[in-house]
């Protein structure tokens, strides 16, 4: 887990190593390939849209991210995709996309009500008639943050040929729907570890529905896993498909 807002070049370089292609990417790739125009909000290093272009998608693909270091890597891997630096406060579209996606739990980084509403309003404006928003959040009932403990260390290869160890620690006590945590990165030959701090918001289905409704969107489907299984209290994910209401 690398905080999606990282702008540091070193940590952006770790993003792909820590987020290898998996079932969630296959899920989103299928949706992207079936849409003519796609906006990936919080696109990170651009793996999803780059893979779609490689797979033959010849329509409009646009990635939006506030981290310049992430977009440097995205542009290198897929220059044929439009990569936009910023967010919905700096860029707006009107009816331009059939599909808007937010992958990698990017939705959970919208911690404050005003930024969440601004993002959803921007999505609503960006969707063409019949367009859909698809995103996922960790199910708060599954309490994933309880496993973010410093004794769980992950090691990944880095671009310089060395190894980087990563560990996370949740700040306790956890109050309400916001979870703050630190991530510590320590690489072979590094002078000192790098520590980052982030906060994620864990919203349940009812709260998600309220925010979506407020933006003129309605939930069409929700799944609990990447196989499109039903959403249950023990499901690890809340995968939401929404469309413009009315």
Structural commentary:
The chain is α/β, with parallel strands linked by helices and 246 residues long. The chain folds into 2 domains: 9-139 and 203-244, Rossmann fold, CATH 3.40.50; 141-200. The chain is 26% helix and 32% strand. The protein is built from 6 helices and 11 strands. The strands form 2 sheets. A 7-stranded mixed beta sheet has the order 3-2-1-4-5-11-10, with helices on both faces. A 4-stranded antiparallel beta sheet has the order 6-7-8-9, with helices on one face. α5 links the parallel β4 (97-102) and β5. α2 packs across α3. The longest helix is centred in the middle third of the chain and has 14 residues, at 113-126. The chain is globular, with a radius of gyration of 18 Å. The N and C termini lie far apart (37 Å).
- Compute the separation of the termini in Å: 37 Å
- Level-1 CATH class name of the largest domain: Alpha Beta
Q: How would a textbook summarize the main sheet?
A: 7 strands, mixed
Radius of gyration: 18 Å
The helical percent reads 25-40%
Strand numbers in spatial order across the main sheet: 3-2-1-4-5-11-10
Order of helices and strands: HHEHEHEEHEEEEEHEE
How many domain units?
2
State the oligomer.
single chain
Tell me the overall shape: globular
* Class from helix and strand fractions: alpha/beta
Tally of DSSP β-strands:
11
* Beta-strand content estimate: 25-35%
Q: What is the CATH architecture descriptor of the largest domain?
A: 3-Layer(aba) Sandwich
As residue ranges, the low-confidence spans are none
**Which whole number gives the mean pLDDT?**
93
CATH homologous superfamily grouping of the largest domain: Vaccinia Virus protein VP39
Helices, by number, come to 6
What's the CATH topology name of the largest domain? Rossmann fold
